[in-house]
Amino acid sequence: MTVTSTPRAVLAASFTPGGTAVPEAKRFTREVMTAWAAVSAIDAAERLAGELAEQVSGEPFEVVWIHNGESVQVEVREKIEGEGTTGPADAGTWGVTLSADTRTRWARIDLPGGEPVPSDEWLIEAANGPGWLGFLADASDLLAGTLDSAMVPAIIAQIVVPRLASWCAVYTTDHQDSGLRPAYLWHADETQIDALRERLADIQIPPDGPAVLHVGEWQSLAFPLTARGRRLGVMCLGRRDRFPDEALQIAEDLSRRAALALDNARLYDQQAAANRALQRSLLPPDEPTTPGLDFHVIYEPAGETNEVGGDFYDLFPVGEGVWRFAIGDVCGTGPEAAAVTGLARHALRLLGREGYGVAAVVARLNQAILEEGERSRFLTLLHGEIRAVDDGLDISLVSAGHPEPLRLRASGAVDVVATPQPLLGVFTEVDFHEDRVRLSTGDVLLGVTDGVTERRCGGRLLDDDGGLAELLAECADLSARAVAERIRRAVQDFAPEPSADDLAILVLRAP
User: Fold this and answer.
1) Domains of the chain with CATH codes
2) Closest by CA position to 117, among listed 45, 156, 175, 69
3) Averaged pLDDT score across all residues of the chain
């Protein structure tokens, strides 16, 4: 549907034939009557427009509403041959006008106490009336509904047009001292957007205001977008007739709300970018080259929140044919969890390359977390060393408060390969010990965080009654990547809603 209008208090909309054409014509009519404050005529106008639209013979048609002060007139125009029509029941006066290629069915409704409307597209109600209070409330809801700074200018413009103005141009600035740049332009008549853009290209947009612009025949005003003492941009409005005082008050109020929404979205973008950079710094920079080892890792932070996740993983060499691996979960999210994650990952690498055994590394990491004092967080960890041997892999590992690691044999049998030991950051005197496991050719070792085992659907968890072991048993003869992807897909499919926890999956397979 394309909406067009003229400065004679005329509103028109084009419709394509089909099952939705009549309801859309009625909805358009309701919007017109609401804009013209002709509330008493809404029901009759809807029925009138519906009856006339129903008589259209299957071709595209146009519905035109004209406000004549004491009455409103609807015209339904179609390019089709034919004779005769039925008069609508709600019309005070009706008729049919024929031209060379157009039939226009029209009808008129008298308005009680009707007065001429302003000459622009939409009426301005009293600024303190319930209509405008609702408009500002709806505008606030729309602006609060996104934290995407690129979307806010578009929302601003489409709120303003056509309720306050015929067109709206939003300009933004990236920095306090940078110039304005066009962010979004909208016009009630979409065919006029390109011409308006060219005209505005020659206009000097004032950074402060409100200020009057000179844009051809339009009365144009610029409202600054300023929030928390920062200049974020300018909102420019234009209409053919004079802006009523109440419209200026509404526009000024809206500019303040829009500026606050834009500033919030920018702050969110900045925090999200910082958190993404922090999250990347907590994960391995590169995928290591591991001859003689088939491995795959999947890592997914939960949801769309603007926080750093607490799960982490690592795989790194410590000697010829020897690697260390880790998969862990720090309690909580955010900067505090990130600090413990960073401490753990770097300590594991440093101590492992210094020659400390797996159990000694875990013990020293536990002590380091405790020394963080109030800043410390609990940490569950699966840490181990892998040695390539002629017929598979020898692994020594420690499972500290972590979901139990599972081994899948080539035969399809699944067993637990580590004894549970205390999580880190709780007890000062802990004697960690290593468990040893052999992966023969085709065997798989699976380590996951609780985002897998505690995936919830109603009152059931994925790992209830050995659910994870059953999933792993179905993965015999699969590559490490295929096993990891199978587990991830099972986690996603276990419940209809998105997971609320981070997820990490580490799969090691002896080739």
Assistant:
1) 3-110 (3.30.565.10), 130-277 (3.30.450.40), 285-509 (3.60.40.10)
2) 69
3) 82
